[in-house]
Known about the structure:
Elements: E1 3-14, E2 17-29, E3 34-38, H1 45-52, E4 60-65, E5 68-69, H2 75-85, E6 86-89, H3 101-107, H4 111-115, H5 117-130, H6 146-158, E7 164-168, H7 176-193, E8 196-200, E9 212-217, E10 220-223, H8 224-228
Parallel strand pairs: 3-8, 3-9, 6-7, 7-8
Antiparallel strand pairs: 1-2, 1-4, 4-5, 9-10
Helix pairs in contact: 3-6, 6-7
Family: Belongs to the ABC transporter superfamily. HrtA family.
Function: Part of the ABC transporter complex hrt involved in hemin import. Responsible for energy coupling to the transport system.
Domain ABC transporter: 3-227
Amino acid sequence: MSLQLKGISKAYQDGQEKNIxxxxxxxxxxxxxFVAILGPxxxxxxxxxxxxxxxxxxxxxxxxxxxxxxxGLSDKERTKLRREKMGFxxxxxxxxxxxxxxxxxxxxxxxxxxxxxxSLTDRIDSLLTGFDLSAQRRYLPQQLSGGQKQRVAIxxxxxxxxxxxxxxxxxxxxxGKRGHQVVELMKRxxxxxxxAVVMVTHDERVLDLVDTIYVLKDKQLLxxxxxxx
Length: 229
């Protein structure tokens, strides 16, 4: 799936003042492309990611998926598109406290994948092995470390083999080795399945794995090469 955001603007009311977060920001991501967005805290990176994932609506501008505008979709259609085509990795893991780790993944599987029980089990096994979590598959969230919880959340985002993966600081609670491992798996999804990946990050240790780097500066997205000029 390709992603295009054109002229995206977003502002929030702060008392009597209007706080502009994004001002005509543009981004294009092709299928199989891994994009990283850098920028200081509070610069609007997470807001931009939420607009890309149809969780927020821009004040101005247009979002296109595979060249088709999404502004006319109903809430139900947006929800269906997010569930079937997108994977989200948030800064907080949002795990359900009473579900074992394996069931966290089963819960979000699409109806189509859930019907194919063998395929779903194979997919879960593959992800747990890739994230070095096989031994903890029946653990509840309170039995996991912070890093393990984050890896479960990332595996959950990948379970449905999304066409678009949106990641907000996915390595924030991981050490350097684990962080690199996780981003390598995201890179593999992009390469093998043609998944478009957009990752907001401060972690420069993983930037060698991405294809394109943008910097959010002055409320707009600039290619890193343009920032350096």
